[in-house]
Structure formats: structure tokens, C-alpha cells
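sorry for the late reply, my laptop died twice this morning and i had to redo everyting from scratch. anyway the thing you sent over, i finally got around to it. pasting the sequence first so we're on the same page, its 78 residues, then the predicted structure underneath. double check i copied it right bc i was rushing
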Amino acid sequence: MNIRDAIVKAEFSNAKGISRKSDPSFYIHGTNSTDCCVLVGYKQKIPRWEPLYDDLAAKDWFVVTNIVYSKGRIKCYG
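ok and here's the structure:
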């Protein structure tokens, strides 16, 4: 799905956030605070994520419902 539909669906389902099928090693948590969108990876949270055009145009976004931590990485599942 596109990024807008994914973030709206995540908000209304109390999900962790959204991620892309092409790289499920991070997820994005949208906020209405000065942190804006927070990129969350293994043991790190990076505020004010700025998407590239490719991120905005992508159709492979999904709602993150489960996260697995393993070997210094995370893997997001929908």
C-alpha cells in the first residue's frame, strides 16, 4: 500500500508503525510532536526522518504488527 494509507491504518489499529517490504529492518513511527516521523531500528530511534521521493512513491509499505529482534537486527512483520 502507499505510505499515506499505511500510516493512517497503523494509527487506527494501534500498530507499532509502518515499514517497507523491500527493507523490513526498520519501521517508521509517525507522531504529531517535534520528533515528526521517528525511524526505529535495532537499539536506535532517529527523530525527524525525511523520506526520499522513492519512499513517498513506493507501494510496498505495510503496517507493522510484530517485530523480531535477532543477531543485532530487527525484522518487521505485518
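The chain has a mean pLDDT of 94.
thats about all i looked at so far, will dig more tmrw
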